[in-house]
User: Fold this.
Amino acid sequence: MISNKTILITGASSGIGRALVHELAKERNFLIVSGRSEAKLLALAEEVSAPMLLLPMDVADEAQMLAAEKRLKVQVDSLDLVIMCAGTCEYQDGWQVNPSLHRRVFDTNYFGAVNTVRMALPLLKNSQSAPRLVGVGSLSSLVPFPRAEAYGASKAALDYFLESLRVDVAPIKVAVTMVRPGFVDTPLTRSNDFDMPFLMAPEVAAKTILRGIAKGKNTIHFPLKLSLTLGFFRVFHGFWSRIVAPKLRKQDTF
Ligand SMILES: NC(=O)c1ccc[n+]([C@@H]2O[C@H](COP(=O)([O-])OP(=O)(O)OC[C@H]3O[C@@H](n4cnc5c(N)ncnc54)[C@H](OP(=O)(O)O)[C@@H]3O)[C@@H](O)[C@H]2O)c1
Assistant:
């Protein structure tokens, strides 16, 4: 159980982040909830009756992040837990590469995390309560999915960043957890036009993530069946790229 902590959650207004807020609010935590839309954060604060600071910011915008950092430092001296849920997904249209799309996805999923970590690390370092930084990646970074060039690459980059950072922040006693969910039923996935095996509710995803964090896990991947299947194909890569992945390709994109 995670209780009596000061916790920053980005991407808190929707989906997995919102479900995490609901769970963490039950356990006397002080929550700092973040997203771009202040209106959505206000709606969240009304839903959840717990002490909460709203920190609207676009994680992709360095100037906004510097302003948010100043507001945050007036309110708290330290953070015990930071969960980076802010994320976006855009799929490539067949074989046509769109650099702007790649930039948009990386700006939020990768540089957004870099900006958040820069802001949060000094405050995590001040924590007396086993501080932990948590990044939400994706099982999609295990094997290459068609049309997910930008999304999968941004999550693979996040993975590398945080795995590498884990080593560098060990001397300041900040732990790092990488979360790799499968398909979760949220606004992010609702427009997907393909089958999503083992689709799970955000409440289930949030409970799984919090159980893993409470156990001090370095990596949390779920659901187990999808994670094992993709892990198998990561090892037998040729089988994935020759047999499985082509079957997942959209047929009308030539
Ligand atoms: N759903 C899945 O199946 C799934 C699977 C694997 C991984 N994930 C990852 O889990 C995380 C949460 O996804 P979700 O499914 O819960 O998505 P979601 O319901 O669309 O929520 C995304 C959240 O991120 C915020 N956000 C988006 N862009 C932002 C930006 N530039 N700056 C600040 N906040 C931003 C959104 O609020 P505003 O719009 O107000 O900014 C919202 O609160 C993402 O990183 C996603 O890649 C999801």
